[in-house]
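Researcher: Sequence recovery benchmark, item below. Answer with residues only.
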């Protein structure tokens, strides 16, 4: 007999777990989470920098702006309630060249429009906050940016679901969604559902396509490589230091961030990957898929000079000297011996619009028959997850009724 559930959530990352938690809180019906890995946190949610963004970067008309600031407050409160490691150490955003100075004012305006505490500071005020940092012209100070133990958050959410008798089925990969038949095909057999939420991250587009949804989108993964600072160099930094980003692409640039355990990380990169789980040089690459990804990258580079330059610069960061150049743009006193290897590598499930080929900047939620598909849960999805889950469930309640 095929097992049946009122709600099935595909994906045991931060978005999937918070959605399942919200369904249970609202007592909408039976719910189960399906996760293809043997444990949670093996992909984006467990490999990120742990930064809780304040909401400075996003235009007020975006979904990101609607959920980021409130999501960060809720995540901080959750961490404090559960005793999860948290550092409220703030962030500065610096102009790494004269050409990026205007972005400081744009980010200041966006932050204020989003109701975020942010202030413009002079180079001397910057030195008081972060003696190692430099800027061209002014900088921004975001005092409400925090860092949390992201894996600790995932484990607590798992405990919450367990206490509420919500099963999280590991080693259960969803292969296809058949919404008309209300059936999921998984690696462990079929499962029936009343409503399914696809929060499968790097594989969300594949599942959406099997359900006839989101055909104009594809996931293009970008690899985030980190280095760490030696303890001697790391001791010179107090909070996070970020560059003023190129606002035409959805990446924030290599930054310096003290983690909750005191380790200071530099990164991540945004290097185009040729596989959805291409964490090393060749592992996770499938020939046909890698070829399609290369073709997409070539098409985007041909029509967008800024993207072409970004890819060129990111590829250079495979080398220590290339990485060091990015770090020294923030803190010029760093030297090569300060940068140490790190096993921390993540993949960003970046959504691309097919025609014309371009990066999608905002979160994307696509509704299908008895289904909702979270197609672009990129940064700040971790920060925003509690509030984003509420918004998603508002939509699910309407469409599932």
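Model:
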């Amino acid at each position: 007999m095929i097992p049946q559930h009122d709600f099935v959530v595909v994906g045991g990352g931060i978005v999937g777990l918070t959605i399942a938690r919200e369904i249970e809180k609202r007592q909408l019906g039976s719910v189960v989470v399906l996760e293809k890995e043997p444990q949670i946190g093996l992909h984006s949610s467990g490999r990120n920098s742990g930064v809780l963004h304040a909401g400075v970067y996003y235009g007020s008309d975006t979904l990101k702006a609607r959920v980021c600031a409130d999501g960060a407050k809720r995540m901080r409160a959750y961490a404090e309630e559960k005793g999860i490691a948290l550092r409220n150490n703030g962030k500065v955003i610096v102009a790494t060249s004269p050409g990026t100075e205007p972005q400081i004012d744009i980010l200041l305006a966006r932050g204020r429009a989003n109701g975020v505490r942010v202030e413009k500071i002079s180079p001397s005020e910057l030195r008081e906050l972060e003696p190692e940092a430099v800027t061209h012209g002014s900088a921004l100070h975001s005092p409400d940016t925090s860092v949390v133990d992201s894996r600790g958050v995932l484990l607590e959410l798992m405990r919450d679901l367990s206490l509420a008798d919500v099963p999280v089925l590991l080693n259960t990969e969803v292969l296809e969604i058949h919404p008309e038949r209300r059936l999921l095909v998984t690696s462990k057999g079929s499962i029936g559902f009343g409503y399914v939420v696809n929060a499968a991250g790097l594989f969300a587009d594949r599942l959406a396509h099997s359900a006839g949804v989101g055909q104009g989108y594809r996931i293009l993964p970008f690899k985030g490589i980190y280095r760490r600072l030696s303890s001697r160099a790391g001791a010179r930094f107090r909070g996070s230091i970020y560059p003023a980003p190129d606002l035409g692409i959805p990446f924030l640039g290599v930054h310096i961030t003290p983690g909750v355990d005191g380790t200071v990380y530099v990164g991540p990169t945004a290097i185009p990957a040729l596989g959805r789980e291409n964490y090393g040089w060749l592992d996770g690459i499938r020939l046909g898929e890698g070829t399609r990804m290369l073709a997409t990258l070539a098409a985007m580079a041909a029509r967008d000079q800024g993207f072409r330059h970004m890819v060129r610069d990111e590829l250079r960061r495979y080398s220590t000297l290339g990485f060091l150049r990015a770090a020294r743009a923030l803190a010029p006193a760093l030297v090569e011996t300060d940068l140490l290897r790190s096993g921390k590598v993540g993949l960003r499930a970046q959504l691309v619009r097919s025609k014309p080929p371009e990066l999608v900047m905002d979160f994307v939620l696509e509704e299908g028959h008895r289904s909702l598909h979270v197609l672009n849960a990129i940064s700040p999805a971790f920060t925003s997850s509690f509030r984003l889950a509420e918004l998603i469930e508002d939509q699910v309640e309407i469409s599932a009724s």
